[in-house]
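User: Hi! I'm a student and our assignment asks us to look at how structure tokens line up with a sequence. Could you show me two examples?

Assistant: Happy to help. In each example below, the sequence comes first and the structure tokens follow. Example one:
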Amino acid sequence: MDSDLAEAVSTLQTAFDQRKLQVRFGKADAEEIEKLRKALRIPARFRSFLSERDPVDVETVTPVERVRFIPAAKLLDEQVGYSITAEGAEPNAAWRKNWILVARSALLGDPYFLDISKLDAEGDCPLFTAMTGTDSLKPTLCASSLQQFLRILATAMEVASGFGEAVMDDDDERTFRETLAPRIKTIDSAALRAGHWT
């Protein structure tokens, strides 16, 4: 795992530790990763992430969103109904072949996915989300790279720690998003402009 990605994972782990939230990272074995590379064309940087810090039981918690990562062992199965056909499950006609589901909103069930048609020289690509339950899927940029996605999640968790665990009203939610926005801008201005986090 390269130093930028390792630092982003470490920052996310620190955010979990500060919030006293239990998570479990592991290491996916090489055979599993190779299977995913062949079946889904998972890019190099995400394979490196799974190899070193497989998100076995990882869910970020903020007042407005909970992002649950899909561990390597379940990634292939989770594509069923999106890009993969299985008995009793047709693929989603609006889902593109170059999208790989890697996490879900634990609140709404919306997918978080890599778009491997936009690979960069480091073998990384942007992450998007889309609202489910509609006739079409309109992707919204969440982060320009995996490293930036992890940093945004860590930052959102840090900001959330100042809001306590009470139920938030609309004003609290707006304040949370307004507090988060300038911090996201320093990480990934394109993600801020896309508006998913704010």
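Example two works the same way, sequence first and then tokens:
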Amino acid sequence: MNYCSQCAAPLIRKIPDGDDRLRHVCTACRHVHYQNPRVVTGTLPVHGERVLLCKRAIAPRLGFWTLPAGFLENGESTDEGAVRETWEEALARVEINGLYTLFNLPQIAQVHLFFRARLLNLDFAAGVESSEVRLFSEAEIPWQQLAFPVVSSTLRHYFADRLQGSYPLRIEDLRWERDPTRQPTAAHEATAQSPKARSE
């Protein structure tokens, strides 16, 4: 950020009185611009023994497979956002069965949530951000072509938990070593080096 959205004056980075973090502060009106983590929400859509994946038609990770997900919009709950994203990316109607995985990605200020969901229709199709949408059995999952670590982790948890018939909430912190010559364009692009997993 370079300029104040309130008065257009230049911004400086400083620790405001009563705070303990660097913030963007307006040099004229003194407005403090807070930047907080963004929430990505999506579903793990299931039909029988198979799960629904979308092939990305947009960057980042163009051409790789993912679960339907995207940024939460103002005015909607996390599960509403997950249902909306599933419709937008796969034209699929789902019934939410509960929050399943939660990933903290502090290095890029994002939180990712995936809800287990039951597919309500089988006439799904690729939305504008997808080039293909398919149901996959565990044996058919294209593990080497999955777009993001959060997707891979969610699928691995699901297939393991399905054997037990129990789906506890999984919470993981994903961190990775930054390449100083390259900035990741999205949380999912980075490869997690030492995730800390826990169940609730």
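Here is something you could point out in your write-up. The helical segments are 78-90, 149-164.
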